[in-house]
Amino acid sequence: MVEVIEKLKEKVTLLPLGDPSFRDPRYEVEKLDIKNFHPISKNAKDVTLCFIDGGSLKVATAPNFAVKLHRLYFNLYRNNQRQKPKNLPQRIHFYTICYAVSESKGIFYQVEFVPIKDEWLRFLPNPSDLRFYSFDRTLMSGLRRASASRAAEAVRAFTEWVFASHVIEQELSSNDIITRDGALQTFVTDESNYANMAYQSAMNKGVIFTGLAKTTTIFTTTGYPLLAAIKELAETSPFSNTSWYYHPIAKVNHPEHRAEMFAVRFDPRSDYVFRFEILRDQAEKMTQTEMEAVIATLASNTGDASFYGYPYGLVDADRFARGSDEEKDGQEIQFEVAASQRALWKKLSGFIRTTDAHSRLNKILGE
Amino acid sequence: MRAFEKAMIRCVKANVEFIIVSGDLFDGNIPELQTVKRAAEVIREVKDQGIRIYVTYGSHDYSASATSMIDVLHSAGLFQKVVEAESIDSGSEERLRLKFIKDQIIGVKLVGIYGRRNGLEKDYFEIIDRDYLQEEAGFKIFVFHSAITELRPENFAYGETIPLSLLPKGFPYYAGGHIHKRLIQYVDGYGHIAYPGPTFGATFTDLEDTALGEKRGFYIVDFDKEVTNISFEQIEVCSIVYRNFDADKKTSRQVSESLKQFASEVDCKGKVVLIKVKGQLSSGKLSDIPFDQIRRSLLDAGALVARINHSSLTSEGIASLKVMGETKQEIESRLIEERISGYKIDPSITDPKVMEIVSDRLLGKGGISTAQRLLTALKVEQKENESKDTFRNRVLRDAQDELRLGEP
Amino acid sequence: MSSEIPVVGSVVMGKHGAILVRQKGGCTIELGDLLVIDHVDEGHTILQVYDLVYGSQISGKNLELLSGMKLEGFTEDFGLIDSNLRNYVLVYVKSVANVTKDKIRIPKTLPPFMSEVRAIREEDLVFTKPPKPVFLGNVRSGSKVLKIDVHIDGDKMFRHHVLIPATTGRGKSNLVKVMLWSVLGQAHFGVLVLDPHDEYYGRHEKGLKDHPKAKGNLIYYSPTPPPGGNTLIVNLKSIEPNHFDGLVPYTQAQEEAIDAYYNRFHLQWIENIVRGVSIDTVSHSTLTVLRRKFNHILGVYLDDAGQIQCRNRVFSDSAGQHTVRDIVASLEKGKMVIIDTSRLLDQAELLIGSIIASAIFYRYQQYKSEGVLEEKPTINIVVEEAPRVLGIDVLESAGDNIYSTIAREGRKFKVGLTAITQLTSVIPRVILANMNTKIILGNELSSERAAIISSAAQDLSTDDKNIASLDIGEAIVSSNFTKFAIPIQIPDFNELASQDQPQGKKLRTGFV
To answer: How near does any CA of chain C get to the CA of A303, in Å?
Structure first.
């Protein structure tokens, strides 16, 4: 193991920091500079913060279909006091069924929703719009055909954007801030359509749309992880022991990534630096003071001891959006029972068995 | 009367300073005039010797509603009643202050409280100003006519009693009456508590006790600053012949024969004859036994007094009495108690004042007392030379008095 | 659920007898609280709190760290958002009663998951007053007192014995006074109170003597009675050899000697022993020992003038011939008799109790054989420091006594005990099992609590903390004659006595 560490030391830790590096030319990079660190003030705005997240549970997957239980959840905080939603259910659950359809051009995946409550259907995209080519590069893993499960997962992302639109329209007011878990970047074909709808709702209402990514794979020119480089740079700056934000990183002109990027360390007690983004259309119209106010407002929500430096609203959203393993097992059993009652289990399990040997092995080995 | 005379003569001979009679000098508030006359003569003779006599009422010779013969004799100056009291309001409590009567010759202080039927004097005891009595200096005597709960003798089975704690403490001598047995007890914190018992005896039980060895008489007490000596002066008036017949499993005929035989054989001249018949007859009725005839035959044979007690005799077939007792008074008392305990106020009575009166006089303890007093009032005998009308009116008046109909 | 009644919690998990309720933020639920879940259709379930624990969505280690940071001044606050949601109190409750209309039943099902729980109101619990009621106190929910009187059928309670276990200072005397106050004047019960601390009559303070019906119904015996009280004098002829059974140990020689004197002199056996009258079959040394024993136990000795004296003035060869009979007669008439034994040694006190208890017990045995027992009032004997007569050690060394006999068999003859004790664990289980009503006051000794709990009429296995936390005047009534173990607050006797005074002018006694 020592040898392993020595090699890492040489190849990974001793690199110079470099500058942000983007492959796409639509990113105009700003060199890393200590001058780009700014303090985060304590002047939080008296506005509502909304945090939104989604989660999914696998119910049954096969090469030709996938059934997932998706959850979408949002919360509202004002001065760190939880607020009750006025109009919308705080959490919705729905099954997403993604099934393979053979057409002349190949295998496509079609989607249908089965919400737990019928009235929640209105919060979901029109399923007839959701149709994926099984060899869509934005869904594939390498050269392999995209799975129905992957398609179903992509659909969740779409539903998050749609739900966000409803939340903005019915629960938020001008100057309120909505933060999604993840960057303001879309990856899947047609996903940007839904993202743009959400952005438009926000711009119409004057609600500031932001995103916070827990992870990022952006590198610097020397192969350093960007956020690690910024963090290391911060330690040589006057802000080594305080909260700070770093801006600008790059000017983004990408249609799938309508964001003004920041790196932030929200709380001096935290080791974590996150990638924070404000909708570019809104950020362009803000003064620095206004941007700082947005960051400061969000920072006020990051002082919870369970995770210093990370918005508590997102901790909460994650807790209520995600599903547990016990729940997953329960869903699988319910699926099997329902299928058996309709004499379908034999056929469906035949499909499932073609791809579940690995998870079966995991169970045997106790993972 | 003979016993009383003997006692008075003995007192004169002993040269006593004064005599205390702790109640029941007579057996009724208006006794036979012949008896009163003789008693007054005796008392006068004693008084003429310079001996003072102090008296309190007893449960028999007192009447709340009418004048008692005791009052008459007191007014005539033959003796001094020792009961004088005034009500005093002490804060929220009512107090009864008994007044001391001071003997003019030797300065002894006497104070007393009289007895009433069924122990009603207990109410007075509860409110007497004990502190006042206890604080009085000098040699003092407390005269009373009540049974003390803690001291009553073994066969004293009925009647209300007064707990010792109601007596004022610190009197060298407590002259008690009412109990028909001789008893003397020194009690710490109090003094000598004495019951001389009757000089002769009024009831069958008294005479029976005498026949069985109970001495009758009175106490002579010597004292200076303290009591120095108490001696009992026995009085014997006449012999008592006492016979107990066990009638268990015998026929009425057999019992009759036994009694007749006894009556014919016994030497009863000038004596008191007591016969007690107990048990359960195997056949025949009680009415088959000529008790009255046998009694008369004894009197004809010269007995001074002849009494036959058959209250504990039963015959088969008669439901056994639920109440047990050896004397008529006991049985009467318990029967009345039992009967009255079942009474309740008629629910149609709603006036609170009426309810209070009914409750107080006709139910519970009050009811028992009223019934007993009524019974006593109704069983008096017509006096010599008393006309029927006078007798009837007297009985009626006494009965009405006992019912307290005139009271608010 | 009525909008007027605030919800205090919600069922989250658990099992029968151990249901977990999450306490609502801002509410305070106490140990011993009575809570209610309303049924959908009709009626409601009453729950009782027996434990409280902290619950948190944050791990224990993190909480400890947060706390430490604040304590040591590293941070101004605990830094928790949604604190009420994530940190809360979990309440352990058990269902104690299902109430529908006016019937109370023992619950056999679990309430629905996530049921809302509210505080109890007075209307939720309506007890029907029994025909011969003994008042014990008011229903208590935690430390709150409800205006619901708790009565038990005295006939059953007294007949089937009562145990009052409590350590010092928990309000035993107050409880007994409150009970006796409610009983005084009711002719259904005759109560004999052996009072070793002279605290029930009220010689110098408020007591039973102040009851409006005390006159004629309350009889007080004391060696030094106040005016109106009876002097406690017991004639030596009232004492029989069997009265010492289980109270005073004798050797075989002494027992034989006592039998000999009793056979020869019958009821004057003690007098003749004290006088030193010798008889052939008894050795001089045995007689001497017995004289010394009676001197010690009874305080009885022969003075220089040849008179029998008594050091404590309680025993006499001349006075007090009717004392025991009077007491028994009073009890039979449904009166209350208090005997002040504060000036007596233990053995003398117990002996007096033994004499009276034996008289009553054997008389009532006779009534039963005659078929008239049911016409007689139930008699109860209140004994303090019950292990003196009911303790395992005492019973094993000295054998059964009248108290243990009554404890085992008394209920057949309508004679019961009220045993007051600090140490329940020393009383045999078979006797404890016969004591069908236990009025449990606070007890800090866990071994004692265990003994009480194991012999209770209801399942109190979860009430250990409840019992340990009972404050002065708080109690739990566990009885065969109640549907569930009722938490009560016993009112202060002095206040109760002050309220119950007769209105209006007292009648004056006219001296004629």
So the answer is: 6
